Structures are given as C-alpha cells and as structure tokens.
Known about the structure:
Shape of chain A: globular
Largest interface: A-B, 59 and 58 residues
Number of strands of chain A: 16
Helix content of chain A: 25-40%
Number of strands of chain B: 3
Oligomer: heterodimer
Strand order of the largest sheet of chain A: 7-8-9-10-4-11
Order of helices and strands of chain A: HEEEHEEEHEEEEHEEEEHHHHEE
Number of helices of chain B: 4
Largest sheet of chain B: 2 strands, parallel
Structural class of chain B: alpha+beta
Order of helices and strands of chain B: HEHHEHE
Helix content of chain B: 40-55%
Distance between the termini of chain A: 50 Å
Structural class of chain A: alpha+beta
Shape of chain B: globular
Radius of gyration of chain A: 24 Å
Strand order of the largest sheet of chain B: 1-2
Amino acid sequence: MREELDQFKKNEVWMLVEPSTNKVGLGVKWVFKHKLDEQGKVVRNQARLMAKGYSQKEGIDFTETYALVARLEAIRILLAFATYNNIKLFQMDVKSAFLNEFIKEEVYVEQPPGFENVDFPQHVYKLNKALYGLRQAPRAWYERLSSFLLENGFQRGNVDTNLFYKDYSNEFIMVKIYVGDIIFGVTNEILCKDFFKLMQKEFEMSTMGELKFFLGLQNKQTKDKIFIHQSKYVRELLKRFKLDEAKPMSTPMHPTTSLGLDKESNPINITEYRQMIGSLLYLTASRPDIMFNVCLCARFQEDPREVYLSAIKRIVRYLKGIANLGLCYKRREKFKLQGYSDVDYAGDKVERKSTS
Amino acid sequence: MSKKKGTIVLSTAEAEYISVAQCCSQLLWIRNQLADYEIHENNVPIFCDNNVASSLSKNPILYSRAKHIEIKNDFIREHVQKGTIDLQFVSTDEQLADIFTKPLIEERFNYLRELLGMILIE
C-alpha cells in the first residue's frame, strides 16, 4: 500500500482540497492482488487503490468512456503472423499504467481508508491524473500511449487501432496493446532493446521478456513454432469444480448425446452453472476442441438442470484426461487464410434450428 | 465458433448456405485485420461439404426452391463475384468444421483435433 501511495506522490496524481457541495468525493477502496507467474508462484503482491467508478455519472464526472482491449482472435492472428515471418515475440508491462494519465474532467475522491490525513480528515482529493476504477481511465491511457508511439514514427493500424508498427529498411517492429500489457514482435534483437529503452524513458516499465504468459495464455516459442496453451488454467479449473479426482474421459461428449429441453430434471444453482460456462468459454481461446460442447451447454443457462450439469462435468473430465493440449502455429511457406463451414440439419431438439 | 442459427430452414442446402454466409463475414473480419499486417488475401477459400450451397452462391439466378431464403444471406454471392471469397467443395471426411457441429466418436474426434493444429505440450 505504501508503494502505491508513493507512486501517487511521484506521479502527482492528486492534491488535497477543502470539500464543498459541488466537490463531493467518490469513494475509494483498496484491492489486493497476488501476481502469479506461469508456475503459480507469487511474483509480487500488489495493493491498488480503486475509485468506485460505478457511482460516477455521465456528463458530470466523465464525458466519454473507452476500453482498449485486443480481441483474443486478434492476438491469435498476431501469433500466426509472427510464426510466418519468424518474428520473436516479447511482452512488457507498464507499471501503474493509468496513473500516468491526465484527465480533463474535475474528479474528487475521498481519502484512502487507513491513510487519512490527520490534520484534515474531512478534505477530499482533487485528481490530476486518472485512478484505477475511474470510468475515463482506460481512454486517457490509450490516448497518451498512442500519441507517444505516433510521435516516435509508429503507424497505427487502419483496422485494428491497438496495433502499431514501424518499418526500418529491412526490419520492422509491431506492437499490440492490451491496456497495461504490451506484446511486441521484432525481427532483430537490437530493435527490441531500443524499443524497451524508448518506452522506459517515457513510462515506468516493470518487466520485459519473451512472451510466456499473457492474459492467462501460456506461450512457448521455438524456432519455427509457437504454442499456446492454458494447462495451468485447466488445473485450477479442475480444483475449483472439485473434479480433480474424477475419472478422465477420452471425448468431451458421448456421440449419441442430444441435449434438449428437460423440464423433468432437477433445477440447479444458476450462478454456479454460469460460472462454469464462463470459465470454459474462456478456455476455448486455446481449446477449440471443446467449442461445440461448451456452446451447446451455454444455451441452457437460462434454466439450468441436472442433465446439463452432468454434460458439463463430462467436458471437464475430458479436460482432465488431456490438460496439456494446446494450439500450435507452425511456420509454412505461404500465409494462407482458409475457412471451413459446416452445419448439422435441425440438430436442435428444442426449436429444430441448425448448428454451424 | 459453434453457433445455433436464428431461423428454421427447409433443406440442408439452405442451412449450409446460411452458415457459409456467416462464415464469410467472420473471414472478412480476419481479412480486414490482416490488411494491417500488409497481407492482402483474395479468393479466400471457404470449404463446404454441400454442392448445392456452393452453386447457389456462384450462380446469381433466383431459383424457385431457394427464393424464400433471406436476402441478407445472399451477400456471399457478391463476395464470390468480387473475388474476395472462393467457395470450394470438400468431402465430409476432410471437413474440419465437423468438430464444431456435433459430438463425434473418439477416433474421428482425435483425427480432426489434430488437423486443427492441436498437439500435446510436454
């Protein structure tokens, strides 16, 4: 917590002012998080002061919101492109990304719990820069970062605004932004160091290294291949659903199963069911093999019953049997895009609609 | 992506046709994204295991058997004519997307899983 408040002081995030009727402070709270690496070891403990952004009102506290995230599919395209061009991928992390940003609107927050100013306990802080949890924070950060990159000769992608690239005669560098995390690919290691130095001058960067663990996706790069897998996530998932002792299965669903509306079966806890679906859907990023089964079960979220739960459990047991499976991008001669399309005819027992 | 369709169809050809149209929009998104990487793909093949659907998309004639299909699905025709998308036939055995439409027996499941590029990681 000290570290976080020191950061505040260093970046001149806020100043103490007297409260008045039009300067009502937003609530703030501490959020604690352990940052884990791919083996699940604690890398650092983090305390973050969050503004309760949900109580902000449009037009008063903020004018425009914006979130800057790359789609997982877009990241997979980057991976495919990187393997094709034999680019090595690196990642880095901006320390307290949002605290770097100036905000246009006037926002006041209360003093952080546990760290009140003894002399002026009723005072509120006027924010100069964005705070985590604030509605306009991500947008402010994106604007700062993109203008910085553009000033330094980078070009922004016309379609994907999270993608930046810069050409040198034979070499090039491409940068993909996911809020405070940055993936970048370079054709040459010297460029990589230059880019890191450039970023370090402007922002406070915490780590830099080969792309290994990004958004919960584990990456492994070899000479002409890139793997992505989520085996750590699978193991956590098994533990969370208390199925780590269950018998593994060889397929995610029995070939003759057809799930239909079943009003006879006992209803189950809807929140729990949705949590399971949610975590399995996230897993489909590197596990397309369970896509059909998860999507099928997801259609029954409205009224979950025991039959569907057992179908989900079967998927999880299949995952247990083959947790280390992942997607592999191999280097090929030519970059090819292909689509496959297939449907079943009226496979859906409920409304006789088809699946594709 | 495995998705349930929004309409009820009268024939498998119609189902395939609609699904190809949706697949086409997905591919166009990827194609757009690739333009940022200086890769400009044309004649992107869509593999489909139904011949009728592919002839429907190549032939801009209105058939009486297919006149009820919603117009929005006909945008694939435009892309085939423009040359951005190319519809090709693939036998059901080699149909990769099979794994996203129905539960399969173990042997076939494993075979398609490997074709998707999924391998075990030590």
